[in-house]
Amino acid sequence: MSGVDPATGNPLFWYARPVFFVASLPAALKFYLNRLGFRKAWHSEAGNGTVCQVDRADCEIILAEDPDRRDRGRLFIELTRAGIDELRGEIAERGVPTEKAWWGYDVIKIVDPSGNELLFPLDETNDRERRG
What we know:
single chain; about 130 residues; alpha/beta; 2,3-Dihydroxybiphenyl 1,2-Dioxygenase, domain 1; 4-stranded mixed beta sheet; 4 helices; globular
């Protein structure tokens, strides 16, 4: 794979979004929209389906209600130092349960109602501002 579109000469672009399987889409939406400040980007079947996407800034997550899927996901979300400070204020204000965890370095861990994990690194060596 060369990384270049042979027809245009432009770099190839990979666009990826994680899919979190949830036990209840309404409960997941309430958590992501009201507690974490995401917005609903789209929802299947004109808002009545069991799949939707939530996003916040450049972070996009597809939520899919499937009672047969018991697996859980983990998403690593890197924020700027100002973004971490803002997140801390929001989760304190909204009463979002968190825990300090370790994923190679210290992270804030938030678990959604279906057990999917969002990890936010706290190590300054991984601050996007430092990488320019």
